[in-house]
Specification:
The chain contains six helices and eight strands. The chain has 277 residues and is an alpha+beta fold. The strands form two sheets. It has a five-stranded antiparallel sheet. Strands 6-8-7 form a three-stranded antiparallel sheet. Helix 1 runs antiparallel to helix 2 (55-84) and helix 5 packs across helix 6 (241-259). The chain crosses the membrane at residues 20-36, 64-85, 97-122. Residues 70-108 form the Mechanosensitive ion channel transmembrane helices 2/3 domain. It is a multi-pass membrane protein.
């Protein structure tokens, strides 16, 4: 009975002293965490809207700072929790140092990820919202973290690319983009007439705000097995080339139909032999 009574007293004392303090620490953590994240987001939103930094740069820094803030806040929470339950913090910090040393020697890939991520941000090779090709993937950058970079492919797949695998970056979002349309016409059609119709379509799209330059008809691109390929080229604003190309192909088909110009398509001819009567 004395043992049970002593155990009960210890548990009660723990709940009345340390338990309340741990509960308060958790409540403060739950309050501070979202407030800090909101402050980081609002500060960078103002910086981006005030044009002190670009909007893409603001989004990139926001993702990174939120990541770092979460790590730091969690470490502070663990240290304070150890203090409340009266566990020595010194061994924890020493253990963190030993862990860091172990990471340096035994997990060089992790260190390489962090170092590469730092230089990606420093040199601004890619930023959130940009269309890039890197690490064997292409798509829109959603987040640049300390260890990985998230790239969303156009089919919706979210790719987690370790920063050390980003050996080279093809950034398709810096400057104007190329809108290229190849269209085939029949060998029987008049090439000059077809180019004239295409130029009329191009003149319509020159008023389109998506185009920064052109588009214009370049001329004959190649000779196919059943068609003569004509090429149109223009420069569009960032990420507007895909929609512009689709709209141009639709308008070209309508213009060719009105002008009586045929777009070749595969034909099949069946030859039958009748038996002699």
């Amino acid at each position: 009975m004395d043992f049970l009574q002593n155990t009960y007293d210890i548990i009660l004392d723990f709940l009345l002293t340390k338990g309340i303090r741990i509960a308060l620490l958790i409540i403060v953590f739950l309050i501070v965490a979202p407030i800090g994240k909101k402050m980081i987001s609002s500060t960078l939103d103002k910086a981006g809207s005030g044009e002190r930094i670009t909007e893409a740069r603001a989004k990139t820094l926001e993702k990174l700072l939120l990541n770092v803030y979460s790590y730091v806040l969690f470490f502070i929470f663990v240290v304070m929790l150890f203090g409340i339950i009266e566990l020595p913090i010194g061994p924890l910090l020493a253990g963190a140092g030993v862990l860091g040393l172990a990471i340096g020697f035994g997990a060089q890939g992790l260190v390489s990820d962090v170092v590469t991520g730092f230089f990606l941000l420093l040199e601004r090779q890619l930023e959130v919202g940009e269309y890039v090709t890197t690490g064997g993937y292409n798509g829109i950058v959603e987040e640049i973290g300390l260890r990985t970079t998230k790239i969303r492919s156009f089919d919706g797949t979210l790719n987690f690319v370790p920063n050390r695998d980003i050996a080279g970056v093809s950034n398709h979002s810096r400057g104007t983009m190329r809108a290229l349309v190849d269209i085939g016409i029949s060998y029987d059609d008049n090439i000059d007439r077809a180019m004239e119709v295409l130029q009329q379509v191009c003149d319509e799209f020159k008023q389109d705000e998506r185009f920064a330059d052109g588009p214009d008809v370049l001329g004959v691109q190649s000779f196919g097995s059943s068609d003569v390929v004509l090429r149109i080229l223009g420069q569009t604003e960032n990420m507007q080339q895909f929609g512009a190309e689709r709209d141009m192909r639709k308008r070209i088909k309508e213009a060719f139909d009105q002008a009586g110009i045929e777009i070749p398509y595969p034909h099949q001819v069946y030859v039958t032999k009748q038996a002699n009567e």
